[in-house]
Amino acid sequence: MEKFETNRLKLLLELLFISTRLGFTSFGGPVAHLGYFHQEYVKRRNWMDEKSYADLVALCQFLPGPASSQVGIGIGVMRAGMLGGIVSFIGFTLPSVIALILFVILLQEFNITTAGWIQGLKLVAVAVVAHAILGMAEKLTPDLNRKAIALFALIVTLLWPTAFTQIAVIVVAGLLGFIIYKNVKVDHDQPTTEFPISRSIATLCLMVFFGLLVILPIIRDLTSLEWIAMFDSFYRSGSLVFGGGHVVLPLLEREFVPTGWLTEEAFLAGYGAAQAVPGPLFTFAAYIGAVINGWKGGLVATVAIFLPAFLLIYGTLPFWNVLRNHSKVKGALLGVNAAVVGILIAAFYHPIWISSIISPIDFAFAAVLFSLLVYWKLPPWLVVLAGALGGLLIYG
Q1: Which of 24, 47, 123, 290 has a 20 to 30 Å separation from 53 between CA atoms?
Q2: DSSP category for residue 193
Q3: What does the domain layout of the chain look like in residue ranges?
Q4: Cis omega before residue 351 (within 30°)?
Q5: Euclidean distance between CA atoms 282 and 93, whole angstroms
Q6: Where are the transmembrane segments (predicted)?
Q7: Contact, 175 vs 337, CB < 8 A?
Q8: pLDDT (tens digit, 9 = 90+) per residue, 190-225?
Q9: Which ranges in 257-326 belong to alpha helices (H)?
């Protein structure tokens, strides 16, 4: 027993060390993160085979939430059980959380929210989200039906800008995908993968996930406590995001900017800064939480927005081999992914475009940053640095 515990501790420490190193060095967004994971865990350390890794990535693409973070959690689970998932998450996420909280302290301590380099960071956000839209649209809306679903999502989200509108759009898009693509081809010869979580624990995690979605808004209304309201907003945002980190932008913007918890300028400055740090883009929540309630708010926001990812990955791992062989489930996902593109375009217009592109020089500089990112293929952190320095020179 003692030997077992010693070996388990060694596994957890090794997992923490490796995931922390990845957390400090994994720039480039979700797709890049999956590449880093593949190189480290499959190629270099042989912790899992190619088929098992592909199986895990497929599951995390299916679920709402931060796909790359969920893959990291899943690898931790497969290596060292449920605690391994937590350790893997902490290592990969904590570096960017700390960096963004320190960024907030810098902004508030020196009162530099109107500095020229902040405008540069806002224009970085324009370039990054435009790039994300192009890539996602090409992949997720290849046919006319899915383009129509994306257009529907765009129009509804722009004309009725509420948090509940986006939930409704996702539900309707899933139903449309369920109907239109109910006979989509499924590869029944895919390999199965065993995950070290029992179905009873998985079911409990799913019950907690859905229970919190229902209970948190009720507690929020009954108590009117700011901490509960903040936790509810971040939890709901983390629960309803399909398509990766960039799509959380409109949900967070709707939750926190109209309510007056932070300004659009502060929101976009933080989003630009989030491009400069490694790790998952969902850690942008740490920035918002720190703006609202200091470093404690940053930590609470991080827990709240990532909690759905844990509950969903723990809750679905044992059932994935059955789910992915249902064509109707896959069809619904195709519709949801198409709607994600429309929601992201709406967010690109408001708040990003109308708050950042005010003059011809803004548009010109944003075009330069976009070209550096897309055509010259500079890493995102260099584009962020160029945006900050250019903003300092242009806007003073």
Answers
A1: 24
A2: -
A3: 107-395
A4: yes
A5: 9
A6: 12-36, 85-105, 117-137, 149-181, 201-222, 272-292, 299-320, 332-350, 380-395
A7: no
A8: 555 667 788 899 999 999 999 999 999 999 888 888
A9: 264-274, 284-316, 320-323
